[in-house]
């Protein structure tokens, strides 16, 4: 350990997404290659001497206690734990995090050191993994609110690869076997399922960690929610969600030294007739077992919605991935203009 193949794979994965800015400390990590990266892991991050680094991924992450702060992280998966090496700007983003992050290095702030926080989630503490719609993100849940993290990969390949690697390292854990199932009678077996709501697909791993995937009903619920936002929709059964993707809305900041742009995380949903942008809560749903009350906001909040027939043109940037798209809509004040003209001229 480690094999040449593994070192090559980790080196290839060690690339910060070009559209996201990271602190100096994480830029240092992103510059490491091969054996230097493995040695950095063992000397600075690993908690046990004999643990092996198996996978590396760059992703935006959300914590259950700070659901509004999306932060860039280098995610390192070993045979003992999942390490989230965090951008140090996260510490200053929210004053309410002081109890969550016991920060003892305030005297180092003015020195030449670049510090990063590392959030550690032991594999033994992982209870379930919820995979989001179309593998755009996944949520890892432990035994308390401090142990819930969502990785917003915005990429089905990265999600799939990480889940496969996680299953592989979980297989190495020596856990006590589950107790033998109690034989159920006919009524309790079928009575408990009569809740009127189909449960999501669950895969229970040999380590007793649940991997939960969304079912078709989740898309149906989302289509219904989208339909509610569309006024005067008559053909509800024919409403199909063609595309669901986690994206960023670009807001240009005027007046700065150079016109910079801020990226606002949004969920883009395309139907056969409309284009929607939603603010989605990626961390609070489904409710963890210890939650005493529902979250303060709904899972989906409509941010913007436009009709496809009002779309004038789509501008495409020529840069490499991620691609920038600009949707230009006709700025018609009254959307039902033609209908009103007909009424005015030919009706009572």
UniProtKB/TrEMBL annotation:
UniProt entry tagged with the keyword Metal-binding: no
First-listed, main subcellular location of the protein, grouped into a coarse class: cytoplasm
Location of the Nischarin C-terminal PH domain: 241-347
Listed GO MF terms: kinesin binding
Residues covered by the PLEKHM2 PH domain: 114-178
Gene Ontology annotations for the cellular component aspect, listed alphabetically: endosome membrane
Pfam families attached to this UniProt entry: PH_NISCH_C (PF25625), PH_PLEKHM2 (PF23142)
Localization in the cell: Cytoplasm
Keyword Cytoplasm: yes
UniProt keywords, alphabetically: Cytoplasm
One of the GO BP terms on file: Golgi organization
Highest taxon, organism lineage: Eukaryota
Any coiled-coil regions, as ranges: none
Name listed for the protein in its UniProt record: NISCH protein
Organism: Lanius ludovicianus
């Amino acid at each position: 350990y480690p094999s040449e193949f593994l070192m090559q794979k980790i080196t290839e994965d060690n690339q910060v997404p070009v559209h996201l800015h990271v602190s100096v400390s994480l830029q240092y990590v992103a510059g490491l290659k091969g054996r230097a990266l493995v040695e950095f892991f063992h000397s600075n991050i690993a908690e046990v001497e004999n643990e092996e680094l198996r996978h590396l991924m760059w992703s935006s992450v959300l914590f259950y206690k700070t659901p509004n702060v999306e932060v860039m992280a280098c995610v390192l998966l070993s045979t003992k734990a999942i390490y989230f090496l965090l951008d140090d700007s996260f510490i200053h983003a929210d004053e309410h995090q002081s109890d969550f992050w016991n920060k003892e290095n305030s005297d180092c702030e003015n020195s030449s050191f670049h510090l990063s926080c590392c959030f550690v989630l032991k594999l033994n503490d992982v209870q379930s993994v919820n995979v989001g719609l179309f593998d755009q993100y996944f949520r890892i849940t432990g035994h308390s609110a401090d142990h819930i993290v969502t990785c917003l990969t915005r990429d089905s390949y990265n999600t799939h690869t990480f889940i496969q690697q996680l299953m592989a390292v979980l297989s190495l854990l020596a856990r006590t076997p589950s107790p033998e199932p109690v034989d159920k009678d006919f009524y309790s077996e079928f009575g408990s399922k009569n809740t009127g709501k189909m449960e999501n697909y669950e895969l229970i791993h040999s380590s007793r960690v649940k991997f939960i995937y969304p079912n078709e009903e989740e898309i149906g619920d989302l289509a219904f929610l989208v339909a509610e936002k569309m006024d005067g929709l008559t053909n509800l059964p024919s409403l199909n969600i063609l595309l669901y993707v986690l994206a960023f809305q670009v807001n240009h900041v005027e007046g700065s030294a150079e016109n910079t742009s801020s990226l606002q995380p949004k969920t883009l949903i395309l139907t056969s007739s409309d284009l929607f942008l939603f603010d989605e809560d990626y961390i609070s749903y489904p409710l963890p077992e210890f939650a005493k009350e529902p979250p303060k906001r709904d899972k989906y909040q409509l941010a913007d919605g436009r009709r496809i027939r009002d779309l004038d043109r789509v501008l495409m940037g020529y840069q490499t991935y991620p691609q920038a798209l600009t949707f230009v809509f006709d700025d018609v004040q009254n959307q039902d203009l033609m209908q009103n003209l007909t009424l005015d001229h030919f009706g009572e």
